[in-house]
Design a protein that fits this description.
The chain is of the alpha/beta class. The chain is built from twelve helices and seven strands. The structure holds zinc ion (ZN) (2 copies). One zinc ion binds next to helix 4.
Length: 305
């Protein structure tokens, strides 16, 4: 039997119906918390029978419309690499966003690192361990780390993850952070808890998920740490930092965070998690708020800088 366009359309419709069934089942059992792709260890290998434990039911994570929509999008636009636009035959490559070749070409953040902001130190500076930015305006956090440079393919992935609702990309991006932590032996054993940089409720409604929380939860799971998702909040909805100059960025975020649970912060070593560290204004302000509440050490981990 030949493979006609109609069988292709039928297959795509079946895929969409399958997603719809999954979503209906999800709404029947209750909405799971937003989480990144794949099943957690708790439901791996557990058969999905009628009396499947409701509390551990987390296998469906796509909102209904997004699931249906992506089924039809796959039909009209077959998956291609975000960078080279080649067809993505190898599904394992970079969460179905980049082909393996493009992912291997992404810019990794390599040592020597600035001792504060974690950026690659390109040329020798007067002070061997600090970049000029950190000498001029020392950030409030103790140290920051990032596995990639915010450019090219990584920038595309982060923006798709953050602004285009591709929350499932978080699994892949978090994995690069976990690998970096392992490769450079970052001292996670001294960290008491992870704190994702919070979004203002208005921004959270708009974006549907907090990208920092997705990353933070994934890293915390990997290292058996606690994530404090509500101890730090945004009390002011700040303007986007994208179009602001460095000095304006600092002013824009000044006083925008607050600690709701000082007991969980005081005397603790914390790892603040966000997607990108650009001028470091946001992470520095968040760290300053945590330190005012008594945090002992505040490290920062982002995907890129
Ligand atoms: Zn490619
Ligand atoms: Zn620096």
């Amino acid at each position: 039997m030949g493979f006609s366009p109609w069988s292709f359309i039928l297959l795509s419709c079946l895929k969409s119906v399958n997603l719809l069934i999954g979503t209906v089942r999800q709404s029947y059992l209750g909405t799971p918390p937003y989480r990144i792709g794949g099943c957690p260890a708790s439901c791996r290998g557990v058969p999905r029978s009628k009396d499947f434990d409701k509390a551990s039911f987390r296998c469906y994570d796509m909102p209904m419309l997004r699931g249906l929509f992506s089924g039809f999008i796959d039909l009209v636009y077959p998956k291609v690499c975000l960078v080279c636009k080649d067809s993505l035959k190898n599904k394992a490559a970079a969460a179905e966003m980049l082909c393996l070749a493009c992912w291997q070409k992404t810019k990794k953040n390599l040592p020597p690192f600035c001792y504060r902001c974690g950026r690659h130190l390109g040329k020798p500076t007067l002070n061997k361990n600090l970049c000029p930015g950190c000498i001029k305006n020392p950030p409030a956090f103790d140290r920051a780390f990032a596995p990639c440079i915010y450019d090219g393919a990584v920038k595309e992935l982060i923006q798709s993850f953050k602004y285009r609702g591709k929350d499932y990309l978080g699994a892949f991006l978090a994995k690069t952070m976990v690998e970096f932590i392992r490769e450079y032996h970052l001292p996670l054993e001294y960290i008491d808890a992870l704190i994702p940089v919070p979004l203002h409720p208005a921004k959270l409604r708009e974006r549907e998920f907090n990208q920092a929380e997705t990353l933070g939860n994934a890293i915390a799971r990997e290292f058996g740490k606690e994530t404090l998702n509500t101890a730090l909040i945004r009390k002011r909805n700040t303007k986007s930092q994208v179009d602001l100059k460095d000095a304006q960025r600092l002013l824009n975020v000044k006083g925008s965070f607050a600690v709701t649970d000082p007991v969980s912060i005081c005397g603790k070593n914390l790892l603040l998690v966000d997607d990108v560290l650009t001028t470091a204004a946001t992470c520095s302000e968040a760290a300053a708020t945590l330190k005012d509440a008594g945090a002992k050490i505040v490290f920062v981990m982002t995907i890129a800088n």
